[in-house]
Amino acid sequence: MKCICHNTEPHLSSFPVVHGAAVLSQSPSVVPVSPGQQVSLQCSVTGEDVKKIFMMWIRQTPGKTPEGVVSYGPDQKIYRPSAIPDRFVPSRDEAKSSHFLTVSNVQEADDSVYFCFMYYGSGVQSWGEGTRIKVLKSGLPPPVLQLFPPPTQEVSANGSVTVTCLVSGFYPGFVDVSWSVDGAPVTSGVHSAPVWLDSANAAQNTYVTSSSMSLPAPEWQTHALYSCIAKHESSPTPIIASITPQGC
User: Fold this and answer.
1) Buried b (16+ CB within 10 A) or exposed e, 199-218
2) For residues 101 and 81, is the Cβ–Cβ distance under 8 A?
3) C-alpha dihedral over 195, 196, 201, 203, to 10 degrees?
4) Where in the sequence is the signal peptide annotated (predicted)?
5) 167 and 208 Cβ atoms separated by less than 8 Å
6) What is the pLDDT of residues 46-73, one digit of tens each?
7) I need a labelling partner for 56 at 20 to 30 A (CA). Which of 16, 135, 181, 222 fits?
């Protein structure tokens, strides 16, 4: 018989502490699901007995802090924060050496990356790679890209110049931003900010992020085309914005 505890924080010290970190594996990385359907996420465990594990599930939604979803004790007690509905149910399968998180009647707000997680009394942690529940929806708003060239004073100096790409107006908040110079991919000198909710458009519930690329000032004029590339599920093809040094 399983016990479900609401508004209760588990005391990890009351459960058996297993020695040596387990290896947690999650696959696939993305599970597409339509609203109203049910989905189960699997967390395979090696190096430990699944019956002795206190397993926690944590989700990370873009623009938000990580959130504890539900926990499952060796004694099969379920710990669920009051903000989490009982649509989220953990379980384990000893034959498969796995823990599971089943989400029924999937809602749009469930779109997030879910991690299985173990904490040892010694401070050692074990994490799964994470699985995104991708809630399918049509008519998603695509990213809008704005490119900003380096300031004139940077170009005239002997240091480095920075090209900035503002990516905004997209939903959901999962986006991949990259750069190319003269059509060739570039990773050196690239820095990307976290994705956050766009407070200026709170009613639309859209997201914004930025990415920048730095290079030596003398190189700025030696290339013909700088491109910021955004890949988002709202568009079957990448969305690209480009600038030329001559046009700045």
Assistant:
1) eeeeeeebbbbbbbbbbebe
2) no
3) 110
4) none
5) yes
6) 999 999 989 999 999 999 999 999 999 9
7) 135
241: Cβ contacts below 8 Å, ≥ 6 apart: 145, 146, 147, 165, 227, 228
Could you read off the pLDDT of 110-119 as tens digits, one per residue?
999 999 999 8
CATH tag for 4-135 (out of 3.50.30.60, 3.40.50.2300, 1.10.3210.10, 2.60.40.10):
2.60.40.10
Copy the structure tokens of residue 73.
């004790």
Structure token digits, residue 172: 């959901």
Amino acid at 9: E
Do residues 239 and 215 make contact, with C-beta atoms less than 8 angstroms apart? no
Contact call for residues 127 and 24 (beta carbons, < 8 A):
yes
DSSP codes joined into one string, 32-46: EE-TT--EEEEEEEE
Cα torsion angle, 209, 141, 202, 150, sign: positive
